[in-house]
């Protein structure tokens, strides 16, 4: 039956520091008069600002015409009365209807503009999401899966659970989990439309149904609270500049009693022999390179504290080493080769590194590849996994 | 209220979900519009390419139809809402008990929707100074959701309002 919990109310607030009026939730009143308090706050907010007045509707999921009519009337009136003010409405394409709906206001008054913020999603990561990186992501998942498939049950993944894989990338982890653990539901979310398109194509080609690939921002998800028994987020906290925002969202969508599972690297600990010192130098530099782009590839061991701070209990952490001795030395070498191109190529160029640095930087990757393929060599890439239970 | 799968008479469309309820029961609580549209949206969206986006769009569209019915119906009779699917299209069929006034409203509204110039009618209606026009939801569906409407008589004093929607344009 239709539960009362399906009904969501809305939240309205004004942040005078940012001159931002924010509406979120579900706004479907029967009569315009029910909007009175909201409209009054809107009017007093506009009266108090100078310059640009921001209206944030990124998380306004539902809005009926009764509410829009009331809001539109107040905004057009304000725009007429305050010709010195620009009104900027921030929408999200994740919602679907809002950009078009609020866009009708621009036709009535050009000083009311609508901006879809999704195009600004994590611009610093763009070089990690270009098409050329897809093969290395697949190889990485293939290599880590050899370890994680036996680790995951220790962190609470069992058949039949409802699961969300946040920052799913190209979706290959979700596919492997679907095959191995048969969850009753998998939602896989990412902010890269090209990665999701690839994920859907792979799922379709391999006739894998039942995975819901969703576009969205991991730091501001529209998924409802407490839906999932198991929430995973792999190799992603380390490339966001505010990982605590994402952890908070992972916890929010997890059911009480369910578990949040994260995996991250400590890239400076990549190792190999022979030529250990050269390899070590390059990976230490790689860590610094990412830090210059506000990404923390040393996050792995910090996962414990991140989950603890988020209020989780029964936290478990362990690490594993992906190596050339796991059974596919060539795959390991291919992965490092792709890293070299991506990091010594694109990222060093963006940072403006000189040729001598890039040459030495590349040499460490090449030595790592040589160690992986050497008959007596050993090459490793360490990964930390951690999980915690959401209190009941 | 009954929820279940039933024949929609939708031809090539495959039935997905149907609910029926006494009209006076449905019209006793405004929140039913939101609850029913949200529930339906969730249930039918999971196998669309982006289930969350699809659910938001479908809920918005269905809610406007339900709000229209909430305001315009005969006092008694059976209200039926069903959803059927054919590939990328969804068909919403609302069987609404009507009297002479409300029957004329629905017939007139569908006539207007098929006359053209719907976008300007919709935009004028959105920004009208007075109360909202009762057909605003239908206009919105026709303009923002490219819905195609038809209407036919149903058993008893009722009409069947049919809206065909295609909310998913691509996989991206």
TrEMBL record, chain A:
<dbReference type="GO" id="GO:0008168">
    <property type="term" value="F:methyltransferase activity"/>
</dbReference>
<dbReference type="InterPro" id="IPR013216">
    <property type="entry name" value="Methyltransf_11"/>
</dbReference>
<feature type="domain" description="Methyltransferase type 11">
    <location>
        <begin position="165"/>
        <end position="261"/>
    </location>
</feature>
<dbReference type="InterPro" id="IPR029063">
    <property type="entry name" value="SAM-dependent_MTases_sf"/>
</dbReference>
<keyword id="KW-0808">Transferase</keyword>
<dbReference type="Pfam" id="PF08241">
    <property type="entry name" value="Methyltransf_11"/>
</dbReference>
<keyword id="KW-0489">Methyltransferase</keyword>
<dbReference type="GO" id="GO:0032259">
    <property type="term" value="P:methylation"/>
</dbReference>
<protein>
    <submittedName>
        <fullName>Methyltransferase domain-containing protein</fullName>
    </submittedName>
</protein>
Automatic annotation (TrEMBL), chain B:
<dbReference type="GO" id="GO:0008168">
    <property type="term" value="F:methyltransferase activity"/>
</dbReference>
<keyword id="KW-0808">Transferase</keyword>
<keyword id="KW-0489">Methyltransferase</keyword>
<keyword id="KW-0830">Ubiquinone</keyword>
<protein>
    <submittedName>
        <fullName>Ubiquinone biosynthesis methyltransferase UbiE</fullName>
    </submittedName>
</protein>
<dbReference type="GO" id="GO:0032259">
    <property type="term" value="P:methylation"/>
</dbReference>
């Amino acid at each position: 039956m239709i539960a009362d919990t399906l009904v969501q109310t809305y939240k309205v607030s004004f942040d005078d520091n940012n001159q931002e009026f924010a509406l979120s939730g579900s706004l479907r009143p029967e009569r315009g008069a029910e909007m009175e308090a909201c409209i009054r706050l809107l009017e007093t907010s506009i009266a108090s600002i100078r310059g640009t007045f921001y209206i944030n509707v990124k998380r306004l999921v539902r809005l009926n015409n009764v509410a829009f009519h009331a809001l539109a009337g107040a905004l057009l009136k304000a725009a007429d009365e305050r010709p010195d003010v620009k009104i900027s409405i921030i929408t999200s394409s994740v919602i679907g209807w809002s950009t078009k709906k609020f866009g009708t206001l621009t036709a009535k008054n050009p000083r009311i503009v609508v901006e879809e913020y999704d195009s600004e999603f994590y611009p610093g990561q763009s070089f990690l999401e270009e098409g050329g990186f897809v093969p290395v992501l697949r190889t990485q998942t293939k290599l880590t899966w050899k370890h994680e498939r036996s680790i995951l049950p220790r962190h609470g993944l069992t058949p039949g659970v409802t699961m969300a894989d946040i920052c799913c990338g190209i979706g290959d982890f979700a596919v492997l989990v679907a095959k191995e653990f048969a969850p009753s539901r998998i939602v896989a979310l990412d902010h890269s439309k090209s990665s999701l398109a690839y994920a859907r194509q792979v799922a379709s080609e391999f006739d894998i149904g039942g995975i819901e690939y969703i576009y969205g921002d991991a730091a501001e998800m529209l998924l409802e609270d407490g839906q999932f028994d198991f929430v995973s987020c792999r190799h992603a906290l380390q490339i966001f500049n505010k990982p605590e925002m994402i952890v908070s969202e992972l916890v929010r969508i997890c059911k009480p009693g369910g578990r949040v599972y994260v995996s991250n690297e400590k890239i400076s600990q990549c190792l190999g022999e022979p030529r250990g010192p050269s390899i070590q130098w390059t990976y230490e530099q790689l860590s610094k390179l990412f830090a210059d782009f506000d990404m923390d590839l040393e996050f792995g061991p910090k996962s414990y504290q991140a989950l603890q701070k988020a209020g989780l209990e029964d936290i478990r952490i362990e690490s594993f080493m992906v190596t050339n001795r796991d059974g596919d030395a060539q795959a390991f070498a291919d992965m490092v080769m792709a890293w070299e191109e991506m990091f010594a190529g694109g990222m060093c160029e963006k940072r403006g590194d000189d040729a001598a640095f890039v040459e030495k930087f590349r040499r460490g990757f090449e030595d790592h590849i040589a160690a992986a393929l050497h008959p007596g060599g050993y090459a490793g890439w360490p990964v930390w996994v951690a999980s915690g239970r959401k209190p009941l | 209220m009954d929820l279940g799968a039933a024949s929609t008479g939708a031809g090539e469309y495959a039935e997905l979900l149907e609910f029926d309820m006494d009209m006076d029961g449905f019209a006793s609580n405004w929140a039913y519009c939101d609850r029913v549209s949200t529930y339906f949206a969730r249930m039918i969206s999971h196998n669309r390419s982006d289930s969350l986006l699809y659910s938001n769009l479908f809920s918005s569209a269905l809610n406007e139809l339900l709000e229209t019915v909430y305001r315009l119906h005969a006092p008694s009779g059976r209200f039926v809402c069903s959803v059927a699917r054919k590939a990328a299209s969804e068909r919403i069929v609302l069987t609404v008990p009507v009297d002479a006034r409300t029957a004329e409203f629905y017939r007139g509204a569908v006539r207007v929707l098929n006359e053209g110039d719907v976008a300007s009618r919709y935009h004028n209606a959105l920004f009208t100074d007075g109360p909202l026009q009762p057909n605003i939801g239908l206009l919105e569906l026709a303009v923002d959701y490219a819905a195609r409407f038809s209407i036919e008589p149903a058993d008893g004093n009722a009409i069947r309002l049919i809206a065909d929607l295609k909310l998913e344009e691509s996989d991206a």
